[in-house]
């Protein structure tokens, strides 16, 4: 555990030696070494050292963090080409990766909370420092204050638990909290982060104003912090939770449907993808709130699938933006005639986004639908509407941007760089290869239910 942490710390001085692609190479190497370091335990903690340890949930999300951060460097080649403070950019990205690594692998509740909040600062610097428009300041303030306002009550609850339990290790949190204000104090920060409908307004603003790397880390990892926190803390409310959960479950399902309708009337490509993230994560939130095995495992699968798929779509939106100099669907038309290779990747990623086989999204949605319908059969109405409109806005995004006659008079497009093809392939390949090993997840659900 500590070896990866010190390896990441040693990358910080390397980032100031004008070795942009070397840092990216090392980040990919860390991803592969991390996979090899996994020794195959299923539900118990292992590799425990200091305040750090892993179970399958932590392992999956740390691996996703390594992968997305590696791809963020690959996607930001223009920063290196234009000499836009790329050394500072690399340092911010490595600090962000360190904070995410500690957040996901920490066994101590206070250390988790501390680095959960610290990860906000590099993301804010990425948005304000390398964003595209003056509105990025407003987007950064939205992001900061939404999270900070909801996280302070959680700190008070951590002090309360510390006094009551005397230690704050995740595996020993066996206290039973039965009050709604305690439920809200702990979980509201995760509802904002995931984000739940009514608390989601910071997300489209932050996505639209962020550079491509900021959008990738927001969609790929930062939303998963909310899901991870909920999965870790729901055990504290095991005797009380169904009274409160049904209320939040209905809000998230209704919100997912409403956001799917909002997606259909978006004209900005990044805004549409950002709102689709809210819709997908509302399904994840509903699965976690059902508190059964299908819901918990389905939410993990869906978080991994969404992290890869949504990040890839933001990369594609950026690739089109670099060529057309607009993200508007009214100007991005007829791209199938001009850059057909990217249209193929657009089709592959959008088909994954609407949960078509053989993507990991399909497996996640099947598991979540099992879970939510098992909780109450009335949820089938909202789930069917969400699934249908998910396909509607995905096809709307593809058909409006790729078909039609090209709007501008600029026809001198080159077909794309090898870096861009590698970037998109590295999003799409894990998303569809992991589907082939889904019998392992079913096996883990079975073994977990027996234990």
Please, could you describe this protein's structure?
This protein is mostly helical and 451 residues long. It has one domain (2-450). 75% of the residues lie in helices and 2% in strands. It has helices at residues 2-14, 20-37, 56-75, 77-81, 86-105, 109-118, 120-130, 136-165, 180-193, 202-209, 212-233, 241-264, 269-290, 293-324, 335-338, 340-353, 360-375, 379-402, 418-433, 438-450, and strands at residues 46-49, 52-54. A two-stranded antiparallel sheet has the order 1-2. A hairpin with a 2-residue loop joins strand 1 (46-49) and strand 2 (52-54). It is globular and about 65 Å long. The mean pLDDT is 89. Its main location: mitochondrion. Belongs to the complex I subunit 4 family. It catalyses: a ubiquinone + NADH + 5 H(+)(in) = a ubiquinol + NAD(+) + 4 H(+)(out).
- Average pLDDT reading: 89
Helix content: over 70%
Strand content: under 5%
Rg from Cα: 21 Å
Number of helices: 20
The biggest sheet amounts to: 2 strands, antiparallel
Alpha-carbon distance between the termini? Answer: 27 Å
Task: Note the overall shape.
Answer: globular
Structural class by helix and strand composition: mainly alpha
Spell the H/E element sequence. Answer: HHEEHHHHHHHHHHHHHHHHHH
Beta strands, count: 2
**How many domains, as an integer?**
1
Low-confidence stretches: none
**Strands ordered across the widest β-sheet:** 1-2
GO molecular function, one term: NADH dehydrogenase (ubiquinone) activity
Organism: Luperus sp. EMHAU-15070805
Catalytic activity: a ubiquinone + NADH + 5 H(+)(in) = a ubiquinol + NAD(+) + 4 H(+)(out)
Main location: mitochondrion
């Amino acid at each position: 555990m500590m070896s990866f942490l010190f390896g990441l710390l040693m990358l910080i001085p390397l980032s100031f030696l004008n070795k942009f692609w070397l840092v990216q190479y090392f980040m990919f190497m860390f991803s592969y070494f991390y996979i090899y370091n996994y020794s195959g335990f299923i539900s118990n903690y292992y590799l425990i050292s200091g305040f750090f340890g892993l179970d399958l949930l932590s392992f999956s999300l740390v691996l996703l963090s390594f992968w997305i951060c590696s791809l963020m460097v690959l996607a930001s080649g223009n920063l290196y080409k234009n000499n836009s403070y790329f050394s500072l950019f690399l340092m911010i990205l490595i600090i962000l990766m360190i904070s995410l690594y500690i957040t996901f692998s920490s066994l101590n509740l206070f250390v988790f909370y501390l680095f959960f909040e610290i990860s906000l600062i590099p993301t804010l610097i990425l948005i304000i420092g390398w964003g595209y428009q003056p509105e990025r300041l407003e987007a950064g303030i939205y992001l900061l204050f939404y999270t900070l306002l909801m996280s302070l009550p959680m700190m008070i609850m951590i002090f309360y638990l510390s006094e009551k339990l005397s230690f704050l290790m995740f595996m020993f949190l066996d206290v039973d909290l039965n009050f709604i204000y305690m439920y809200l104090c702990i979980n509201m920060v995760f509802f904002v982060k995931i984000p739940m409908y009514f608390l989601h307004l910071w997300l489209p603003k932050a996505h639209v104003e962020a550079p491509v790397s900021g959008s990738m880390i927001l969609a790929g990892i930062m939303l998963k912090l909310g899901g991870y926190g909920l999965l870790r803390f729901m055990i504290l409310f095991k005797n009380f939770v169904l009274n409160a959960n049904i209320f939040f479950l209905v809000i998230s399902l209704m919100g997912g449907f409403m956001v799917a309708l909002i997606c259909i009337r978006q004209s900005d490509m990044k805004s549409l993808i950002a709102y689709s993230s809210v819709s997908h994560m509302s399904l994840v939130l509903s699965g976690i709130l059902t508190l059964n095995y299908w819901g918990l495992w389905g939410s993990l699968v869906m978080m991994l699938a969404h992290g890869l798929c949504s990040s890839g779509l933001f990369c594609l939106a950026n690739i089109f933006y670099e060529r057309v100099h607009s993200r508007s669907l009214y100007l991005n038309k007829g791209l199938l005639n001009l850059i057909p290779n990217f249209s193929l990747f657009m089709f592959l990623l959008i088909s994954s986004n609407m949960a078509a086989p053989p993507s990991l999204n399909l497996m996640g949605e099947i598991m979540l639908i099992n879970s939510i319908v098992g909780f109450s059969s009335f949820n089938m109405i909202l789930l069917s509407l969400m699934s249908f409109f998910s396909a509607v806005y995905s096809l709307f995004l593809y058909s409006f941007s790729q078909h039609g006659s090209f709007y501008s008079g600029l026809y001198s497009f080159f077909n794309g760089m090898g870096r861009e093809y590698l970037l998109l392939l590295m999003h799409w390949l894990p998303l569809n290869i992991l589907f082939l090993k889904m019998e392992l997840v079913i096996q883990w659900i079975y073994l977990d239910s027996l234990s």
